[in-house]
Structures are given as structure tokens and as C-alpha cells.
Design a protein that fits this description.
The complex is a heterodimer of chains A (449) and B (129). By secondary structure, chain A is α+β, with helices and mostly antiparallel strands. Chain A has three domains: 3-125, Beta-Lactamase (2-Layer Sandwich); 135-262, Beta-Lactamase, CATH 3.30.450; 271-448, Alpha-Beta Plaits (2-Layer Sandwich), CATH 3.30.70.270. Chain A contains 14 helices and 16 strands. In chain A, the strands form four sheets. In chain A, strands 2-1-5-4-3 form a five-stranded antiparallel β-sheet. In chain A, strands 11-12-10-15-16 form a five-stranded mixed β-sheet, sandwiched between helices. Chain A has a four-stranded antiparallel β-sheet with strand order 6-9-8-7. In chain A, strand 7 and strand 8 form a beta hairpin. In chain A, helix 12 (320-337) packs across helix 13 (361-377). Chain A starts with a helix and ends in an 18-residue tail after the last strand. The model of chain A is unreliable at 94-99 and 438-449 (pLDDT under 50). Chain B is α+β, with helices and mostly antiparallel strands and 129 residues long. Chain B has a single domain (3-127), classed as Beta-Lactamase (2-Layer Sandwich). In chain B, strand 3 and strand 4 (104-114) form a beta hairpin. The longest helix of chain B is centred in the middle third of the chain and has 10 residues, at 78-87. The chains are: A alpha+beta (449), B alpha+beta (129). At the A-B interface, helix 1, strand 2 and helix 2 of A face strand 3 and strand 4 of B.
Chain lengths: 449, 129
Amino acid sequence: MSAEACAVLAAEHEAMIQFLYLAPVGLVQTGTDGEIAMMNPISAQLLMPLQRDGNLVNLFDALEDVAPELRNLCAAFTRSNGMICEGLHIHLNGGGGARHRRAPQVLSISLLKLDDTRLMAVLSDVSEQVRRERQLRQNDAWLNALLTSITDYALVGLDRDGRICEWNETIGRVTGHPGSVIGQPYSVFYPSDACTPDQLHDRLRDADQNGWSLSEGPSVRADGSLFWSSAMISPLPDFDPQVDITAYCMVVRDISDKREAIESRRKSVYCDHLTGVANRRAFFEAAELELHRNRRRPRPTALILFDADHFKRINDRHGHPAGDAVLRHLGQLLAATFRQVDVVARVGGEEFAVLLPSSTLDGALAVGERLRQLVAARPLLVDGMAIDITVSAGIAASDGVDENLHLDALMKRADQALYAAKAAGRNRIERWTPPPSESDQSPTTRDAA
Amino acid sequence: MNATDLSFATPGLHARLAQLNADQLDGLDFGVIGFDADTNVCQYNQTEAQAAGLTAPRVLGQPLFTNVAPCLNNFMVAQRFEDAQDDDTSLDDTIDYVLTLRMRPVKVALRLLSEPGSAVRYVLVQRRP
């Protein structure tokens, strides 16, 4: 090849490299085991902040903490080539955005299997799109509530504190309550463990701030029978506290017939595919909202992080299907032990988080301890094998007064307590205690896991 | 001490680098990317050019964090420089990182250098074993 031709080729090569350097999406080529062969700069920009050791060798390892399902998704994909997942959303953290202006909250990942040895991944930061979509969804729900042909509804007047202040036929028809319901808080329409008094007030404050507050969920009639309701609370525009008693209007609709569609939509977006409990996305959305409210109206909020002890050993000894069965088992016990108002979620491979609104550290410890004992009490039977399971947990709480205690800080505290529990021998729960010095440093190292 | 005695870990390196001309920067065995107050690249030495597969003319004058090294555009690197600039403090820190030189993940140590009142800030790059 002539020198001139070489120079032309070199220039083209350089232009091509720069083209890839500047592509505004992350591109990664890996082996089927996730080992990274090639990647462009945006991939490093997005993935490096997630790494604990400053290295980036394997894509699955790099995303293990936030998307543990990727490895399984690829393993379960049996065709020799094709799209394994497209635009899968990975939720990174809750409160990091406030501290790090640049930290993305949601990554989108698409995985394409090229052949039996290679995968191609496309990564992008979709935080802004997700935020916009969420807003649109809320608008949709609002329009839905207004426009869907209303077959029956209860019209309820509430006073400033959320107590029912008028009775009419619609209340009797939809909820079965007689006039004696007057004076009771509107929580009478909900199962007793489905909302706390604080949350009742939250919805009134939300209505004050936004003009309306909408919620869907289980409701209960006077005779104890359950139905699925959509309820909207809005403040009355001309309310005068000197003269009027009725401050809010609440419209309750029985939407039991639509429940299946609503639930399946919710499940597909908010449920962990393996265990059926909430996924990271649902957890962080709910936890952000609760902590936001908790600062507006200070009260305790507790967070527990549970981690299955020696989970890797269980997987190695009994196989991945047994490991999956253990996780499902833990998900079921967690969901059955905690209140309906608590948010139980799988937030990592074998890590579960529970957010307890209006609960103190001690209150959370009592329930957490019950769960720990329940898990340890008897082994799980999987295909005739008895597998002993224990969990360790860390608890932290916010009193709502400390403005700086954002979700990520609270998570970090619970995480520190969890690792203290691991270091102290596992099968135990530790509470977060402030370190002796001012600094918020981990009392133990992560190696203790 | 002349230019070639400078190493990646030399203390007080910011002041030393500011005295070097382009040829002397090219003689260093670690990558040097210098950028100005608007984050435009103003120095790009030979070691860095070779590792990245880009020649200086393609890079000089371009905004570092968007057009040259978008992999550094996160809170680990770009924001450190921004914070140092906002707070008017010096920055001299070395972190482990992975660069995507010619699309291959390469373990490197990055040294981030910024001094209040100095026109040029630096990202230094050295390969890790």
C-alpha cells in the first residue's frame, strides 16, 4: 500500500474512532458471560459511578447491584441470536440526584445477542424521559378518573381533618355506611392496615398543594367486604374556616371490574418478576414520596434492609433454581409479616428493603425481629432438600426533622447497620448507630458480606 | 530537575506542568490533557494522543467533557472540577478509573489537578497494571 493510501486509511480510522467516542449512547460488546470486549466512552461515564472497585471488566457484574436479573435474562435466552431485552429500565438510586447533579436515576438497556459468543448492549440515561412519562401518567389517571363513564360513585364531604361531615345516599349505596359514619375519619373506607393516620393527612396536604389527590387501591365496605376503589380528594374552592365545616370533596368510585387491568399494568411496571414483591423502581418512587412527605410533616419513617445470609453458598450447593425458591420464600414471608402500608421490595440480588411509614426504629426492629425468627425457625423444602435460611438486617430511621437525611443517606445508614449485622455473625438485626466521630463513615467494611 | 524527571505522582505537579511547552509535555510518559476555564482542551500530549488514537488537531479547542472524553462527564470527574471552580479551592486527587481507549476498556489512574487562579486545569492519565 502506498504511503498516501496509508495516510488516507489512518485518517478514516481516526474519524471512525472519534465518531464512536462521541456517540451519545453507551455501546458495549461483551461475551455471553458479560466480559467486556469493547465499549465506548458514554458506557464508562454511565457505569463507572456504579462500581465499587474502580474497575469495569464484566457488564453483568457492573450492573449486579441494580439489575441482578440481566444474567438470568441472557441465560434464559435460548435462541442463537436476537433481542434479549429492549429498553429495559434500570433504576439506580433514589436521592443521588440531589447531591450529584450529573448522577442519572434511570438507565435504559437493550441487549442484542449477536451469536453464541457475543452480546451487544446499548445504554442510555433516560432519567428525564422517565420523569416526564410519570407526569403524563398522573395526568392520564386524572383524566381517566374524570372521563371514564361513571356508573356509581359516593360523594363524601370531609372537614379540615379528614373527618366525614355529611351523609348522603351515594355513601350508603357504594360503601354501605349509614349516617352514623359522620364524624369518623375517611380511613373508615380503607382496610385497617392499608393506611396510617399520617397518610390520611398527606393526601389532604397533597390535595391542598396540587388541587387534587388521586389514589387507587383496596377499600372496605361497612359489612367488611372488600372492593377496589379509585378515590379523588379535592379542596373546596370557597372554603372559609370561619363559616364552613366541609373543606374537601371526596369522590369514591367502585372500580372492582377494572381491577385486573389496573393490577396487571401495575405489576408489569412495579413488581419484581421473581418474587412478586415491589421492584427497585416501585421502592424508590414510594420511598422518595414518603420521605418528601415526612419532611413536610415530621414523623418517624423506618427503613430495613434484609440480606439472605450465605446466599452464594446456597446457590453453589443447591443450584440456582433453589436459590430462586429461597428468594420467593423470603418475598412471601416479608409480604405476610409487614403491614400493607409498608413497602416491601427486592432491591438487589438477595437484598430486600422494607420502608415503614410512621414507624420508629424500635417499632421496625420488633417486626424485623419477628421476620428474622420466622425465617430461621424452619428450613425451606425444595425438591426434597431442606435448606436452612437465615437473614441479616440493618435498620435506620428518619425523624423527618433532619432536612439532609435524604433517601440515599438513609439507605447508606441501613446498609452500614446491615454490614455490622453480617460482621457480628449474621442471623441478626442491627440498628444504625451514629459513629463516634462526626463523619458518616462505615463502621465495618463491605468485605464482611 | 528537567521535564522528563516528572512522574505521574510528583507532588505539586500543577505548577510544574504549567511551565512546560508542548514538546516537553510530549516527552512525559503519562497522558496529559489540559483544559481552560470553559473546559476547552488546550493541551493534549503525545502519550495521550497515542493511547486514545486521536491526534491533537482533532481535539484542541474542543470541549473536554462533551466532545473529547465524555466518559469523564459524571460526578467522579467533571463535577469535581466544577466544584473546585465554584468553591475556589485546589483539587489534586488520584482515582482509579476505566477509560475506553480505542473502545477497549483500559484500567487507568486519573490525577485531577486544578488550582484557583490558574488558567489551565489537568486530567493526567496513567495505565494501571
